[in-house]
């Protein structure tokens, strides 16, 4: 659905040239929810503006739904952009128009017949859960409701691609989750391709199928969300993954006092997919007749699967510890010896 080839964008600022996007290659499949994560200044906004033709690349090609957006101009660009909608962080609603009128606006501009507009608006109101709010003005709505209007408005022209520019960054955590659920629902119901930019890994974890990590204009890591979470390669990706855990340093998530200095090695086990279903601690306890001590455990859901992390203290060393690790690997469980006591 979207293919970016060797895309760079260099701005000529007063202080000199700024490379906002640096040789980016990217592919988003039809029906995918694709996350682009990075800190402020990484180039995310520029990249998303390249996708809807608001910026032209300095070099490279940007193809969306078969159309080269970078080459298109005039009427062709206008038509292409009708199929690429955007949802904004600060909603960008028309404050003097009601909810219905905001949603109807782009259809009116396109010259759709009145009855068709009314039908479409009602359909969208129901889709985003705003029944009863048709005649309300944006100032009478909560942040989450405003974003529902923003999403309904973006869907009015039945786009091929929905771009979300930090769509939940102005919302509290509960409202963020409700809006993310709505996006997931829309993706499933309409098979709509969604590209979102964010600085929050929680957003990526909850709804994205794939993620690209951006740093200084480049994509430094890319992959399926589940595999990026379980095997982050770059330091910046590890930092983002840590955002979604309750501990912020490289330290373990449990109180160090729980570890008995004389009671053996501390292991971190990571389970992915099917391996999350195995009663592995019970099996090991029986097999080795050892009192495995659970220090901490958690399961995390992503859009393409579940992974679990478990910290254990194992009163074993030497060849016995090696055998335990080999057994875990045979069950497709990754291990890390956090501390070898
Ligand atoms: N029109 C412009 N002229 C000059 N420099 C620009 C322009 N737009 C963006 N930049 C620069 O390009 C770099 C990337 O900016 P961009 O806004 O794309 O990053 P971002 O990841 O979206 O950050 P934020 O989340 O803060 O918006 C920054 O160094 C920024 O200063």
How are the elements arranged and paired?
Blueprint: E1 2-13, E2 16-28, E3 33-37, H1 44-51, E4 59-64, E5 67-68, H2 74-82, E6 84-88, H3 99-109, H4 114-127, H5 143-155, E7 161-165, H6 173-190, E8 193-198, H7 201-207, E9 210-215, E10 218-224, H8 225-230, H9 235-243, E11 265-272, H10 280-288, E12 293-302, E13 305-314, H11 318-330, E14 334-339
Helix pairs in contact: 3-4, 3-5, 4-5, 5-6
Adenosine-5'-triphosphate is lined by residues 11, 13, 18, 20, 38, 40-46.
InterPro entries: AAA+_ATPase, ABC_transporter-like_ATP-bd, ABC_transporter-like_CS, ACT-like_dom_sf, MetN_ABC, MetN_ABC_transporter-like, NIL_domain, P-loop_NTPase
Keywords: Amino-acid transport, ATP-binding, Cell membrane, Membrane, Nucleotide-binding, Translocase, Transport
Pfam families: ABC_tran, NIL
Structural description of this entry:
It holds the Pfam family NIL. One of its GO terms (cellular component) is plasma membrane. The chain has 341 residues and is α/β, with parallel strands linked by helices. The chain has two domains: 2-243, P-loop containing nucleotide triphosphate hydrolases (Rossmann fold, 3-Layer(aba) Sandwich); 256-339, 2-Layer Sandwich (Alpha-Beta Plaits). The chain has helices spanning 44-51, 74-82, 99-109, 114-127, 143-155, 173-190, 201-207, 225-230, 235-243, 280-288, 318-330, and strands at 2-13, 16-28, 33-37, 59-64, 67-68, 84-88, 161-165, 193-198, 210-215, 218-224, 265-272, 293-302, 305-314, 334-339. A six-stranded mixed sheet has the order 6-7-8-3-9-10, with helices on both faces. The chain has a four-stranded antiparallel sheet with strand order 2-1-4-5, covered by helices on one side. A four-stranded antiparallel sheet has the order 12-13-11-14. Strand 1 and strand 2 (16-28) form a beta hairpin. Adenosine-5'-triphosphate (ATP) binds at residues 11, 13, 18, 20, 38, 40-46.
């Amino acid at each position: 659905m979207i293919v970016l080839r060797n895309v760079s964008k260099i701005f000529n600022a007063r202080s000199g040239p700024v490379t906002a996007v640096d040789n980016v290659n990217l592919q988003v499949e039809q029906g995918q929810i694709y996350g682009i994560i990075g800190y402020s200044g990484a180039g995310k906004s520029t990249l998303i503006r390249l996708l809807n033709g608001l910026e032209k690349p300095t070099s490279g090609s940007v193809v969306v739904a078969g159309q080269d957006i970078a080459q298109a101009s005039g009427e062709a660009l206008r038509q292409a952009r009708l199929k690429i909608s955007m949802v904004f962080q600060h909603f960008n609603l028309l404050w003097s128009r009601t909810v219905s009128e905001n949603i109807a606006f782009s259809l009116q501009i396109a010259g759709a017949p009145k009855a068709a507009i009314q039908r479409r608006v009602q359909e969208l109101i129901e889709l985003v859960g705003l029944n009863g709010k048709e005649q309300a003005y944006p100032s009478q709505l909560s942040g989450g409701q405003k974003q529902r209007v923003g999403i309904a408005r973006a869907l009015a022209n039945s786009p091929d691609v929905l771009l979300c520019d930090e769509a939940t960054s102005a919302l509290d955590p509960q409202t963020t989750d409700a809006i993310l659920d709505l996006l997931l629902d829309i993706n499933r119901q309409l098979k709509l391709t969604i590209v979102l930019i964010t600085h929050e890994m929680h957003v990526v974890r909850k709804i994205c199928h794939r993620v690209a990590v951006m740093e200084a204009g480049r994509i430094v890591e890319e992959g399926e969300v589940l595999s990026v979470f379980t095997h982050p390669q770059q330091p910046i990706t590890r930092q983002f993954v840590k955002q979604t855990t309750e501990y912020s340093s490289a330290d373990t998530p449990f109180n160090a006092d729980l570890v008995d200095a004389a009671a053996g090695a501390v292991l971190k086990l990571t389970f992915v997919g099917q391996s999350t279903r195995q009663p592995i601690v019970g099996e090991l306890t029986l097999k080795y007749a050892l009192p495995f001590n659970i220090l901490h455990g958690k399961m995390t859901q992503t859009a393409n699967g579940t992974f679990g992390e478990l910290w254990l203290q194992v009163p074993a060393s030497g060849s016995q510890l090696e055998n335990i690790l080999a057994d875990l690997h045979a069950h497709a469980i990754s291990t890390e010896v956090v501390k070898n006591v």
